[in-house]
Design goal:
This protein is α+β, with helices and mostly antiparallel strands. It has 16 helices and 23 strands. The termini are far apart.
Length: about 500
């Protein structure tokens, strides 16, 4: 067996990537899918399109590499996490479009569920605040909205799953998920690693609709048909946990930041869940077979790369995402303009569902180039907020956060201007790995470990190598001034939505 394949089903595209024993890429196939916006704040995907695109890239990557299924030791799956699919158990037909993690339609429901207890009602058991971000309220909305869905769910005729479960169902016919994805639903007890029947009842999600929870690295089933028929699916990790694994952040205190549609920073906290006092999430990082689970603190930012996409698609100022760096480099700074992309409210560490996006500090001096620069800088400012919260939690819990550098990955880390500004605003070196596709790599590692393709986690550490490092050059005075202006802009997003 020459390779391990990773299915990476993300917010904007589906990919399949082949990796060899050194963790190097041997083939890639990708296909984008449409973003569906039925109403302001609503974001959907067509589940059948997600599946068709996944099926296409499985065949395409084999053709590109000139190999067959016989060359693949195992398949790992990584996915956009909280995105919610409900389908018919008998036919496999979705009863509604997938509700994407960015979607805010459940804001009133979350407020209602919070009641007098507040958003932290379930945090001690799930590690999560009541938020539109997570899957449980999205399932409730589908069951309450689609005619007959609740009755069918209670009768066991429907299945719910995050996107990993949907793909596993289509690939193998099995209704399963892993602990990392289950920990993003608001329905799983973090310590027991099992569905919490009381929370499920209170949120309104029947147990009969839920998938079986398994570890992140074990043989689940063989693929039943298609180009990879007979190959075992042996790893599942939510996308941010997969990136953590691919970055070899395997010891307590190690952290990474992924720059994608949104930004996600995770800090490994070891085998005991640590509950945040500064707006971070507690989540399962990974579980290998029967070993104890490893937990993480997470800072989730809703809109970073999606802001570049908005600049391209909604405003039409650039025609390709990569053009934003060249445009931003034509000016020396942001011209006094700040963009806060609270399209779906603000996630970590502020958790303000009432916030909406603003462009602040506009004068007639500001050009499209200044706005391009402000878009890139907003990603770095939001990351700084999460880092500050992470440091505060680590200090409060006497965790040794290795704040000597920040490991980064994702599509936006190819942008040198952004990475330099990130190092400046953090006052830390920023390090990009040689293999940037760490999300897919993490899923491949999970699957490969389960079938013995890699012998253990020491192989993962040995494969990780740095590609480029950016070191801070900004003065402390300028950094403080920029952060002060950013905070003023953020405060202007509050209290916009009812």
């Amino acid at each position: 067996m020459r390779y391990v394949a990773a299915i990476d089903q993300g917010t904007t595209s589906s990919r399949c990537i082949l990796f060899d024993r050194e963790g190097k890429i041997a083939g890639v196939a990708q296909r984008e899918h449409d973003q569906i916006f039925p109403k302001p704040g609503w974001v959907e995907h067509d589940p059948e399109t997600l599946w068709r695109n996944t099926e296409f890239v499985l065949g395409a990557v084999l053709d590109e590499a000139g190999i067959t299924a016989a060359d693949i030791a195992a398949v790992g799956v990584t996915n956009q996490r909280e995105t919610t699919v409900v389908w018919e158990r008998d036919t496999g037909r979705p009863v509604h479009n997938a509700i994407v993690w960015q979607d805010t339609r459940t804001d009133r429901l979350c407020t209602e569920l919070a009641g007098t207890s507040g958003a932290a009602r379930y945090a001690e058991r799930t590690g999560l605040p009541l938020s539109t971000y997570f899957s449980g309220p999205k399932v409730r909305w589908i069951l309450d909205t689609v005619p007959g869905a609740r009755e069918r769910a209670e009768a066991g005729e429907l299945c719910f799953g995050t996107v990993d479960s949907w793909l596993l169902w289509k690939l193998t016919g099995r209704h399963i998920t892993d602990v990392t994805n289950a920990s993003r639903t608001l329905l799983m007890d973090l310590r027991a690693l099992a569905w919490d029947e009381r929370i499920c009842a209170e949120i309104g999600v029947p147990i009969a609709i839920l998938p079986e929870i398994r570890s992140s690295s074990e043989i689940y089933a063989e693929i039943g048909a298609g180009p990879l028929a007979g190959v075992p699916v042996a790893g599942i990790l939510g996308d941010q946990q997969a990136a953590m694994f691919g970055q070899a952040c395997l010891a307590p205190g190690e952290a990474k930041n992924t720059y994608g549609t949104g930004n996600f920073m995770l800090l490994n906290t070891g085998t005991t869940p640590v509950f945040s006092e500064h707006g971070l999430l507690t989540t399962v990082c990974y579980r290998l077979g029967e070993q104890p689970p490893v937990y993480a603190l997470e800072g989730s930012i809703a809109v970073t790369g999606a802001l570049v996409q908005w600049f391209r698609d909604n405003l039409g100022i650039i025609s390709a995402a990569a053009e934003i760096e060249d445009l931003a480099r034509t000016v020396d700074d942001n011209g006094g303009a700040y963009i806060v992309p609270a399209f779906s409210g603000l996630f970590a560490p502020r958790w303000r569902p009432d916030a909406r996006g603003v462009i602040a500090g506009l004068t007639r001096f500001v050009t499209k180039a200044h706005l391009a620069r402000a878009i890139l800088e907003s990603t770095a400012f939001q990351t700084r907020e999460v880092m500050d919260a992470m440091r505060a939690d680590a200090e409060a819990r006497s965790l040794d956060l290795e704040a000597t550098a920040l490991k980064v990955d994702g599509g936006m880390v190819e942008n040198d201007l952004l990475m330099q500004f990130q190092a400046d605003i953090l006052d830390l070196p920023v390090v990009r790995p040689q293999v940037n596709e760490t999300t897919a790599l993490g899923a491949a590692y999970a699957a490969g470990l389960a079938v013995g393709y890699w012998s253990g986690t020491d192989d993962i550490r040995a494969n990780w190598t740095a590609d480029k490092t950016w070191t801070p050059t900004m003065s402390a005075a300028e950094r403080d001034s920029r952060l002060g202006d950013w905070n003023k802009a953020v405060e202007r997003t509050y209290n916009w939505a009812d």
